[in-house]
Design a protein that fits this description.
- The chain is an alpha+beta fold.
- The protein contains 18 helices and 19 strands.
- Helix 10 crosses helix 18.
């Protein structure tokens, strides 16, 4: 998106001040953050003292490797070998650190890593990957040390807005973005849809060609495209044991009403350019009798849709929609992989762990994972590379995720409730309903969502 050079410590040694926010502020009674400021040169030479080791500190559990301490990194099995090779090569070039530390990469998926960290922070890896919907629980458990100084600058300046939002809680950054590749956007047939910018226009163009725009609104994952698009909110708070402690939802507001009216209007176009998206909808682009002119889906359907459409393949961010004369950009959930650093009592080790996390999430590493495993980068330079841009699905998703908050954790009841709500809309139940009736339905949904556990 914008040409932003990745800042590295060797370049910044004599150029910048480096502020470390040491142990993550867990929100517990263990104490808040204290900040120590020093030069980056001093930090790289082990002279910096990270702040606040009283906030849920983890024990120094590194093991000796000769005179070296071993830093443990957890990564998904599919990228363990790549991560170990790249980190070993990188460390060999770090003159200030390679005589003191070695790095061992172990296989641990994002979900299991979170479970292990929540069970026993001290026994967990020094640097680990996790999914964005677990950020709040890890913060509450005191499992994350916040990046500061040049590391914080790298997070904020070098990654897309959606991924930066995914590592941010209550205004503070707690982790490093690693990917930006899970969410939905628009696939379309260029011979049918010549202008994919508005929902109304897409439905009209599909209808005129005897085709359909397919979207699943019988799902709480997809209907937030409308609710979040108008500015409505719905999210849950959890404790470290996974229990719901609160819910914020304003679907009964004017914002929620605008979203529901848009969904109702779309459902009224059934048979005239819109249809509820079935399982395997990508196959509906089949030129031999396929009925799809456009489809809301994700990167998992890229190969299928591109194969069917060939030169007519199109991918774009989600369209806008209009309610009562006001236009809104469709939103959605963003899915991101993140990298966290465990708090440490040893200030030098904490500094080095942040260097490791910073490198793991660098442009170089994100491009390596894209090239070898197809992971979509959050790094802005990586997203602008010819290789990533040639993947039309990732390019469209990157644009869309700028409008999407990271998906938090939702209880099972939320999904059941929103499925029933969307099914009622699709059935035509509210086709002729007035605003009062729609608001009553939204109030019932909101109250049920807030009561869900």
């Amino acid at each position: 998106m914008m040409k932003t050079a990745k800042k590295t410590l060797p370049i910044m040694l004599a150029l910048s001040l480096l502020t470390f926010a040491g142990c993550g502020n867990s929100g517990s009674t263990s104490g808040g953050d204290t900040t120590t400021t020093t030069t980056a040169a001093a930090a790289a030479k082990n002279d910096a003292a990270p702040a606040d080791t009283t906030a849920a500190p983890a024990a120094d559990d590194s093991t000796a490797s000769g005179d070296k301490q071993t830093i443990t990194v957890w990564a998904p099995e599919e990228v363990v070998e790549l991560t170990q090779t790249k980190l070993s090569d990188w460390l060999a070039g770090q003159a200030d650190w390679n005589g003191k530390y070695s790095i061992t990469v172990s296989a641990m998926g994002e979900g299991e890593a979170t479970t292990q960290m929540l069970t026993d922070v001290e026994a967990g890896a020094d640097v680990f990957g996790f999914a964005q919907d677990q950020l709040a629980r890890l913060v509450a458990a005191g499992a994350l040390s916040k990046p500061g100084g040049v590391f914080l600058d790298n997070v904020k300046n070098n990654n897309d807005a959606g991924s930066v939002g995914a590592v941010t809680l209550n205004g503070d950054v707690y982790a490093y973005p690693e990917t930006s590749d899970n969410g939905y956007f628009l696939y379309y047939d260029k011979s049918v849809v010549t202008d994919p910018s508005t929902l109304e226009g897409i439905i009209e163009q599909c209808g005129a060609a005897g085709k359909n725009f397919y979207m699943d609104i019988q799902s709480g994952w997809y209907d937030v495209a409308f609710f979040f698009g108008t500015g409505a909110q719905c999210y849950y708070d959890y404790d470290t044991d996974g229990n719901v402690t609160g819910c914020t939802c304003d679907y009964s507001s004017e914002k929620g009403l605008a979203a529901m009216k848009a969904m109702v209007e779309m459902a009224k176009s059934k048979g005239k350019g819109y249809e509820q998206s079935p399982d395997g909808a990508a196959s509906l682009f089949n030129p031999e009798g396929g009925t799809a002119g456009a489809l809301v889906s994700g990167t998992w359907d890229y190969a299928t849709v591109k194969d069917f459409l060939g030169d007519n393949f199109g991918a774009a961010k989600m369209p806008t929609f209009t309610v009562d004369g006001q236009s809104y950009q469709m939103s959605g959930f963003g899915g991101f992989k993140l990298v966290g650093v465990k708090p440490q009592t040893d200030s030098d080790k904490l500094t080095f762990c942040h260097l490791v996390a910073d490198y793991i999430t660098s442009e170089e590493m994100q491009m390596a994972r894209f090239e070898e495993k197809g992971w979509g980068p959050s790094n802005l330079n990586a997203q602008k590379s010819d290789a990533v841009q040639s993947n039309e699905a990732l390019a469209a998703l990157a644009e869309q995720l700028a409008f999407c908050p990271g998906q938090g954790q939702y209880p099972g009841a939320y999904w059941d409730l929103t499925t029933a709500f969307g099914t009622d809309i699709n059935s035509g139940k509210y086709a002729d309903a007035d605003d009062a009736t729609l608001t009553a339905a939204l109030t019932e949904l909101e109250n049920s969502i807030k009561a869900a556990k």
